[in-house]
Each structure stands twice: as C-alpha cells, then as structure tokens.
Specification:
The protein is of the alpha/beta class and about 475 residues long. The chain has helices at about 20-30, 45-50, 85-90, 110-125, 145-150, 200-210, 215-225, 225-230, 235-240, 265-275, 300-310, 325-335, 345-355, 370-380, 390-395, 400-405, 420-435, 435-445, 455-465; strands spanning about 1-5, 35-45, 55-60, 70-75, 80-85, 135-140, 160-165, 170-175, 195, 200, 210-215, 245, 285-290, 315-320, 340-345, 360, 380-385, 410-415. Helices cover about 40% and strands about 20% of the residues. The longest helix has 18 residues, at about 110-125. The chain binds adenosine-5'-diphosphate and alpha-D-glucopyranose.
C-alpha cells in the first residue's frame, strides 16, 4: 500500500464551494482498490467539526500561527480524516475563504499556511504511527506545504505532488508576511516563492513539489501558454517533464441517473418543465449549474441565448456568485418565457435539472476539468461545451465526422464568442429534432467512461513512482 496524505481546503460531503471538494472527497475511495491508502487533512471549520461528531484527538500543535491547535481523527466514509482544529483560524461564521458578506478573510495567508504547516509536520513526524510516503497538495491553500516539508528536513523522505485545480486562484500576499508565515528568506526570489515582489502560495507549491499535476491533459498543455498560465506559464514550461494532466472522474455512487436508458428521461423532463412552469415548446430543455463567475463565460451565453429561444429551446439555470451576473440572469428570465433562473446553491435541484434536461451548457472561458459536463454525459444530458481544458478532453463533438462515425456525445464550440455559441445552440436544436441521431448520442453519452477507474490507476502509478522510502 502507498500511504498518501491528501491536503485539501474543502471536501464532500463536509464542505464545498466547487469541484475541488468533489475530487478531494472521491479520491480516497477511488484509490483504495489500486493499493493506495489515502488519508485526508482538512481545516476544522464549524461545519466539519460538527460533522465529525465523536472525535479522537491524535496530536497537539502548541503554537500554530498565533494559537493552540489540535488534530482530530474522524471518518470520511470508510477512510480516515484528520481535522485541523485551530479555533483562532477556522472557528467562525461564513465560508471557507470569506466572511458572511463574501469578503475574503484577511488572515487567509495565515489560515492556509497553518493547514500547510500541519500537513508538513504530519508528513515529517508521522501521526498515530502512520507515516505518509506522499503528500498530495491541492491548489494554493496547501501550496506552502512542500516548502515547509523541506524546511523540516523531510523533503528527501516524503515526496510531494502539487495539483492545480484552478490557476486563477494563487494565494498571493505581501512580502512583509515572510516572517509571519515562517518562510525562509532565501526563497524570496524569482526561482522561489516570490511573484512580482509578492509571496505566492501556489508558486511555492509549483517550485518546491516533486511532481505537478492538473485535472486534464488539455489544461496541462494550456497552462504552459501565456493565455492560460496566468503568469506561471514560464515556470510550468520549465517543469514540463514533471507536469501531468490526470482527468477527474465522478463518483458513481453519488451520480447515478434515476433511469438506465434514454427513454427513462421523459418522466424527469416533464417534471422539470412542470417545476419551472416552462411553456410547451418543441426544442431542447437546456440546463446549467455553475458558480456565476467570469471563468464560466455566462456573459457570452446571455448574448447567444436568443438563438436558442427563437428556435423553441429553453434554459433552466442554477447558480450563484457574481452579483451582476445574478441580476442579469434574473432579469433575462423575467422578460423571456423560456428561461428560468434560480439563484442559490442547491444539490437536489441540480440533480433534478440534470436528470430532466436534454442538454447541459458549459461555455467556460477556461475549464481545468469541469464536472457538470461529466454528470451530463452520465445522465444522457448532452453537453454543449467550449473547446477548452477538460471540456475538450471529455466530449466527442457532433461534427459531420463524429456523427458519421456514430460516436458523438455532445457539441463543442470554438472560439469563445457569442456568435460561435449561438451557432452551437442552433446545431443543438437541429440535432435534437433528429430523433434517431439524438437517441444515439444519448446512448453514447451514457456509456462514456466518466468514472474514476482510469484516472485512479494513473494516480496510483504516479505515487508509486514518486515514493522515496518504502
Ligand atoms: P468549479 O470547481 O470551477 O466550480 P466544476 O464543474 O469542477 O467547476 O465543479 C462544480 C461543482 O459544483 C459541481 O459539482 C456542480 O454541480 C456544483 N455546483 C456549482 N454551482 C452549484 C449550485 N448553484 N448548486 C448546486 N451545485 C452547484
Ligand atoms: C476547479 C476547476 C474545475 C475542476 C475542479 C476540480 O475548480 O475550475 O474545472 O473540475 O477544480 O478539479
């Protein structure tokens, strides 16, 4: 068994703001059959402390960034969860990264340096007699961990993997935090964790980890370009030998459609239309479940939507985030009969939408992997996606060739602008009207390999290759 400590800032079913939580929650179970014993370290936010219920203290950390901290052991399904209880950093109302008004916590650098530092200590000293061989870090929140591990003198015993789920979040703070964060001054330069005169937690991870990964092969290539690398493309090009793209999967137990064949969808489609009081139009019912942010290309969707609605298509949208986008979609729904907007976060509704929709839209500007198109494939809800990142790797386009070969599973569009999305929506309406072709695509989609089997084996092989001590 390879022993891996996964260090994450969110994890399903305990705390979630996006896809990272799904992945952190799914990995231990997906990897177990591949000879990997993964345990997860998570901050002790109130929701997590409450959820673990009866807990056992397994470590005391005397002074962790200004206060006393403990590590508790809990369970994550069948797997072990370690919770970093540091009340001065994590015991507060609000989200994992921001206060109830949505403003980032001012002490985020210390909060996640604390998580990183605890991870490094666990890897250096072991915990309960368990000694991780690999430290698997996710995103900037655990970015300092590989550096702390080296500072503890354990970098030659424990290997580290840094996974980029989204390079748009880099964990940047001012250089006057160097001492507060316990960083070595010798690393404050271009070759180290310095980034345009600031400190970058993500860059620290990308410099000091042994291996790097991201969540799809296409995003791995894109990250090495100035367009997508967000200032870190040069570093990633230098480290390209160490960078791999491993596709995310979805958890079969959590994402199984309530029907086994395309015909089973009709009932759920009718229910969705009734729930949102949609008019009885002939075209496809499209759904969209997303954080409403710049990344997701929703401003472009607003411009392209008339092409769908004018042809009898409809849209049910669920999301929250950017206030302006929320207002714009609410206003659009008010003035268009075929559009329903729900602002909020609602897993049960997301499921009903994906079960009832004909197509799922993901018009992202960039998308490291994307999970909703995978749910769509699994549920025979055909994805209409931008040709980027994981969206490029998981959908087979209904091009003339794809259709002739009988293997298409969705529609991809490029470049990312309103005109090309409008074209894609027009093609969608046409395909939807061609019942035999549509049914074939639904079947293909439902048979797509969107689970973890392949990627779990890839991670297991990567860890095995990285192990420094047996
Ligand atoms: P990202 O991590 O960039 O937000 P992903 O597609 O990887 O994008 O993951 C998003 C996850 O969050 C999916 O599981 C999706 O279903 C879920 N999600 C996003 N917004 C909502 C919402 N408003 N209600 C319910 N689930 C949502
Ligand atoms: C990020 C990305 C998303 C990816 C998720 C999980 O939030 O935006 O594309 O699926 O992480 O890896």
């Amino acid at each position: 068994m390879t022993r891996v400590l996964s260090v994450a800032s969110e994890c399903v079913p305990l705390i979630k703001t996006g896809g990272l939580a799904d992945i952190a929650g799914a990995l231990p179970g997906a990897l177990a059959p591949h000879g990997v014993e993964m345990r997860t370290l998570l901050p002790g936010y109130p929701a997590v402390m409450k959820a673990i219920g009866r807990k056992r203290k397994v470590a005391d950390l005397d002074d962790l960034f200004g206060g006393f901290a403990r590590v508790y052991r809990g369970n994550l399904g069948k797997n072990v969860l370690y919770v970093l209880d540091a009340p001065h950093l994590f015991d507060r109302e609000g989200g994992p990264y921001s206060d109830p008004q949505g403003r980032d916590w001012r002490d985020n650098p210390e909060r996640f340096a604390a998580l990183s530092s605890a991870a490094a200590m666990i890897c250096a000293d072991g915990i309960e007699g368990w000694f991780p061989q690999i430290m698997h870090c996710h995103d900037w929140q655990s970015g300092f961990a590989p550096l702390y591990l080296r500072e503890l003198g354990a970098g030659d015993r424990v290997a580290s993997l840094m996974t980029i789920h989204n390079i748009a979040f880099q964990g940047i703070c001012q250089s006057n935090m160097i001492d507060t964060l316990g960083l070595p001054r010798s690393g404050f330069n271009e070759k180290g964790y310095e980034f345009w005169n600031n400190i970058s937690a993500l860059k620290a991870g990308l410099v000091y980890a042994d291996k790097l990964s991201t969540v799809s092969p296409t995003y791995a290539s894109e990250l090495m370009t100035p367009e997508f690398g967000m200032g870190l493309d040069g570093l990633l090009r230098e480290r390209q030998e160490d960078l791999v793209g491993v596709l995310n999967g979805i958890d079969d137990d959590l994402w199984t459609p309530p029907y086994a064949t395309p015909a089973g969808k009709a009932k759920h489609r009718a229910a969705l239309r009734a729930e949102f009081d949609l008019p009885d139009w002939p075209g496809p019912v499209c759904v969209l479940v997303s954080r409403l942010t710049e990344q997701k290309g929703l401003d472009i969707l607003l411009q392209a939507l008339p092409a769908l609605l004018d042809r009898g298509g409809q849209l049910v949208l669920l999301g929250s985030g950017d206030r302006e986008l929320e207002r714009a979609f609410l206003a659009f729904a008010q003035s268009h009969a075929g559009v329903a907007t729900t602002i909020g976060y609602d897993e049960a509704l997301a499921r009903r939408m994906i079960a009832g929709g004909d197509a799922i839209l993901v018009p992202s500007r960039f998308e490291p992997c994307g999970l909703t198109q995978l749910y769509g494939l699994r549920f025979g809800t055909l994805p209409v996606v931008a040709l980027t990142g994981g969206l490029a790797d998981t959908v087979i386009n209904a091009s003339p060739a794809g259709l002739a070969a009988g293997c298409a599973t969705g529609i991809q569009f490029h470049p990312l602008n309103a005109q090309s999305l409008a074209q894609a929506l027009m093609s969608l309406v046409k395909l939807h009207a061609d019942r035999p072709v549509w049914k074939r695509m639904m079947k293909n989609a439902m048979a797509s390999p969107v689970g973890w089997e392949h990627s779990a084996a890839t991670y297991a092989a990567l860890y095995a290759e990285m192990v420094k001590t047996v």
